[in-house]
Amino acid sequence: MKVYVSVDMEGVAGISDWEQCIAGGDDYALGRDLLLGEVNAAIDGAVEAGATSILVNDSHSVMRNLPPGELGGHAAYLSGRFKPLYMMEGLDASYDVALLLGYHAAMPTPGILSHTYNPRAIADVLLNDTLTGEAGINALVAQHHGVPIAVITGDQYVGPEAAPFCPRIAAIEVKRSVSRYAAEHLHPDIARQRIREGVAVALSGPTATPPAIRLPATLEIRLVSPDMAEQATWLRGVERVSSTTVRCEDDDPLRLYRTFMTLVSLTRSLVETR
């Protein structure tokens, strides 16, 4: 069994502040340690279920948050800041299943450190008129390759957000968000045990099915400023539907994902720094 793992950081038990998940932050070393523990727990569960090949795609921030030599299961490691498919880089039809670890909720929710790709540019995203965070958007890539997404880990919001787009996904809750900047966390040992056991069960039992997002699919993206919405319309197929909202539609899920990622990259030029 070939397993693909997309790893974010904000949804890891014990993490509740940007200082823990941005390089240079006061508690970044602690955040990396907490992240590594959950990744290795998922790897242990996958190996227990029969995984013979595992790729870990570091999908958070500058995407080099894990020490490669400390990954379990002799997992391959994909890192680096420029990836054409970003959080889903490396996934292809040869994989049997995908896991989403340490994921967080969409920007409009009270989930811990909630955002959708770029919190300084994107205020809200709807996929086929349903609120989505990064999991639903990333499911477009999995659908293109026909790969099931079997597990997502994080707070109490990530599972329900992913469910409309990822049939039979197992949500493993390791923390409960109190607000965008506070959460009640499982002890790291308990969180890791829950992840290991949850992944083993999910990969050993009845398998999840690939995403089946209705096509043509529509993304409606609300940006934080009218200038960003105007800039987004420079992309072919993106139309403006209000002062700050744009819309794009495609019958090819991978092409729709690429359009969205180009929009994310383009609007970074208008993010104000103070």
Task: Describe the model.
It is a single chain. The chain has a six-stranded parallel β-sheet, sandwiched between helices. Strands 6-5-11-13-12 form a five-stranded antiparallel β-sheet. The protein is α/β, with parallel strands linked by helices. It is globular, with a radius of gyration of 18 Å. Helices cover 28% and strands 23% of the residues. It has six helices and 13 strands. It has helices spanning 28-48, 134-145, 158-162, 188-204, 226-232, 253-267, and strands at 2-7, 53-58, 76-78, 97-101, 122-127, 130-131, 149-154, 170-173, 175-179, 182-185, 217-223, 238-240, 245-250. A hairpin with a 4-residue loop joins strand 12 (238-240) and strand 13 (245-250). It has a domain at 2-113 and 145-204: Dipeptide transport protein (Rossmann fold, 3-Layer(aba) Sandwich), CATH 3.40.50.
Strand arrangement in the largest pleated sheet:
3-2-1-4-7-8
Structure summary, number of beta strands: 13
CATH architecture of the domain at 2-113 and 145-204: 3-Layer(aba) Sandwich
**How many separate helices?**
6
CA gyration radius, whole angstroms: 18 Å
- How do the SSEs run, as a string of H and E? EHEEEEEHEHEEEHEHEEH
Specify the helix fraction band.
25-40%
CATH homology superfamily name of the domain at 2-113 and 145-204 = Dipeptide transport protein
> How would you sum up the global shape?
globular
Indicate the CATH topology of the domain at 2-113 and 145-204. Rossmann fold
Low-confidence stretches: none
CATH class designation of the domain at 2-113 and 145-204:
Alpha Beta
Biggest sheet overview? 6 strands, parallel
β content, as a range? 15-25%
- Structural category is alpha/beta
Overall pLDDT: 96
**Ends: how far apart?**
48 Å
